[in-house]
Specification:
Layout: H1 19-69, H2 76-97, H3 111-125, H4 127-132, H5 140-161, E1 162-166, E2 175-178, E3 199-202, E4 208-213
Antiparallel strand pairs: 1-4, 2-3
Length: 234
């Protein structure tokens, strides 16, 4: 048996380089390159942000300096709006200060007086009998005779219980001038009404007004709705 001696030199470098070693080397190189690129991008970003912050601070300080030296002025549009608002407030105050129109008060008429008048006309002139009669069954002569009696009784009743006078003292058909502020309840205008008073025209009817009423007093249990009681002959 031959004894063979092997001499190994530890200072020698390996001379072989397989595929696994190549892959590991490439991976390490790629990771290192990626880290370097990321660090470079981060550094550039930090430099840019610092530069922008400095520019912003400088511009803000300059604007504050300029705004402090230049006096502030309100836009003319706001001044015009304020003037319009003041005018509206003045107009509203004028409207508020106007006196409110007086409320219209409606008076309720009592039917007792009207019923009493019909009773008096029926008693003195057979007024209701006349207007309720069928005139087509009578001749004109009969109607005229009955109307004469009725008119005489109506005249007596009116003169006995009412004092009546004319509204205007002028003669009918005479010229007349109505001054400003005339009583519209006493004078009714007809025809072509243009403009305002004074009005000049012709008196067509002098009008009538009651100056005094003298109706008889009624008892508490009087039934005014009975204009004429029915008559029964025994």
């Amino acid at each position: 048996m031959n004894n063979t001696e092997f001499n190994i030199d530890l200072n020698l470098t390996p001379t072989t380089f397989d595929a696994i070693h190549a892959y590991l080397a490439a991976t390490v190189f790629g990771l290192a390159l990626t880290v370097i690129i990321l660090l470079f991008i981060l550094l550039l970003s930090m430099l840019r942000n610092a530069k922008k912050a400095k520019q912003t601070k400088v511009s803000t300080n300059s604007e504050q300096t300029i705004s402090s030296t230049i006096p502030k002025r309100e836009p003319e549009v706001k001044i015009v709006e304020k003037v319009v608002e003041v005018e509206k407030i003045v107009e509203i105050e004028k409207i508020v200060q106007l006196p409110a129109p007086e409320p219209i008060i409606l008076k309720e008429s009592t039917p007792e007086a009207a019923l009493q008048l019909l009773n008096l006309l029926q008693t003195e002139a057979r007024f209701i009998d006349f207007i309720k009669e069928d005139m087509s069954a009578h001749s004109d002569a009969d109607i005229g005779a009955a109307a004469r009696v009725m008119l005489t009784g109506c005249n007596k009743t009116i003169n006995q219980h009412f004092d009546i006078s004319s509204v205007r003292s002028e003669e009918e058909g005479s010229p007349i001038t109505l001054a400003e502020g005339f009583n519209a309840a006493e004078v009714r205008l007809t025809g072509n009404i243009v403009g305002e008073a004074p009005f000049s025209g012709t008196l067509i009817h002098k009008g009538w007004k009651v100056t005094n009423i003298k109706l008889p007093k009624l008892t508490q249990d009087h039934q005014a709705e009975i204009i004429a009681a029915a008559e029964v002959e025994l």
